[in-house]
Amino acid sequence: MSQPSGTPRQIPVVVLAGFLGSGKTTLLNHLLHRSGGSRIGAVVNDFGAIEIDAMAVAGALGDSTVSLGNGCLCCAVDVSELDGYLAKLAHPDTGLDVIVIEASGLAEPQELVRMVLASELPGIVYGGLVEVVDAAEFDDTRARHPEIDRHLALADLVVVNKLDRATETERVLDLVRRLVDHAAVVPATYGRIDPEFLFDCRPGEERIGQLTFDDLHDHVDDDDHAGHLHSGYDTLSLTCDVPLDPRRLMRFLDGRPEGLYRIKGYVDFGPYDVRNRYAVHAVGRFLRFYPEAWAPGEARLTQLVLIGSGIDVPALGRELESCKADTDAPHTDEAGMWGVLRYVPGTEGDPEEPA
Questions:
Q1: Which residues are paired to 44 by β-bridges?
Q2: How many H helices and E strands in the chain?
Q3: Above pLDDT 70, what percent of the chain?
Q4: Please, what is the angle between helix 24-33 and helix 52-61, to 10°?
């Protein structure tokens, strides 16, 4: 879905966390080579004077990297300093489509998320917390770092990495699923997940489904390890010319199931707001609506895409269909939009934490 003219462009900021050796840098490098034409910027935070992780990604990122060595990001900088780094990367001249904050293995994910949410930059939007875990070392990691259970409960997406080295893959996956709170859990080897989980890929060439010709022909060797990347998640799309009822949609969003990681698109609330459509942005439990004026002559449609792992696509489709407004409903009332307006930035009751 294209960005409407005159609407400020917002770049998603994804926090990439996980303990030492879980495979965060490998995952980031994979995203760089699977971006489908999208430009990725990164804030790379090594804990130590020699910035190994920054060197690992610098060749692919060039001047789109901000490197913070010899300190933990959540302790070494405050919100205003982080805003300075993000402002540099989010400048229109960079042409970036997504920014990834790769935290050190000792960082506190909750503090990093709070810093991004507290940002006053109009050009960015929180893009979710991705927690990477090492499947082969998961039991030992929990024994040494019991706080990992809390980290997993905060995550929007959990990548269970290094499954090729684990001996009890199903047990580890089941355990992680029990520890998360409505997060999508994606199995992986070599950090290979589909970038569509994290951001909208801009195709460098003609697309076939979720994969580009570049994916199909230039990365055949990846399939030996990764299999079909798009097989790890499910998608559901809705396009309709009937307005959605705001109360019904909020009931759907408040009760969205575990594994439903992303919701994106535009909603027409019909007579509840005849001047605006509402861009919706949800990652995990985080939810925001952004009112945008309808362009003259623009078709008034609701267009939504849902992405998740292990979700019941037919059931979700039926629930979305039930959110359509009744064509013979009585006149709207002001209270009908209150649930939506709670998640519009700058309005009274705007939540500071993910929903």
A1: 67, 102
A2: 13, 14
A3: 75
A4: 0
344-351: Cβ within 8 A, 24+ apart? 344/288, 344/289, 344/290, 344/291, 345/288, 345/290
Compute the distance between CA of residue 192 and CA of residue 12 in angstroms, rounded to an integer.
Answer: 20
Residue 205 has pLDDT above 50, yes or no: no
Q: What is the pLDDT of residues 48-103, one digit of tens each?
A: 333 333 444 444 444 555 555 444 444 445 667 888 888 888 888 888 888 888 88
Strands 234-240 and 260-267 come out as unpaired
190 CB-near residues (< 8 Å, 6+ apart): 23, 26, 30, 161, 164, 225, 226
Residue listed under structure tokens 């009751």: 349
Residue 8 or residue 272, greater confidence = 272
Strand order in the sheet with 276-283: 234-240, 302-308, 260-267, 276-283, 286-293
User: What SS3 state is found at 274?
Assistant: coil
| 91-148: pLDDT as tens digits | 888 888 888 888 877 778 888 888 899 888 888 889 999 999 999 999 999 998 899 9
Residue % of the chain over a pLDDT of 90: 36
Q: Which among 22, 56, 34 is positioned nearest to 226, based on CA atoms?
A: 34
Phi, psi dihedral angles at 133 (to 5 degrees): -125, 150
Q: Are 17 and 76 in contact (CB under 8 A)?
A: no
Indicate the helix (H) or strand (E) that contains 64.
none
Specify the pairing of strand 260-267 against strand 276-283. antiparallel
Residues 45/101, Cβ–Cβ less than 8 Å: yes
Q: In the prediction, which pLDDT does 307 show?
A: 84
Phi, psi of 81 (to 5 degrees): -70, -40
| Residues in contact with 164: Cβ distance below 8 Å, sequence separation at least 6, in sequence order | 189, 190, 225
Q: Is the torsion defined by CA of 307, 308, 309, 315 positive or negative?
A: negative
Confidence check: pLDDT of 292 > 90: yes
The answer to whether 17 and 40 are in contact (CB under 8 A) is: no
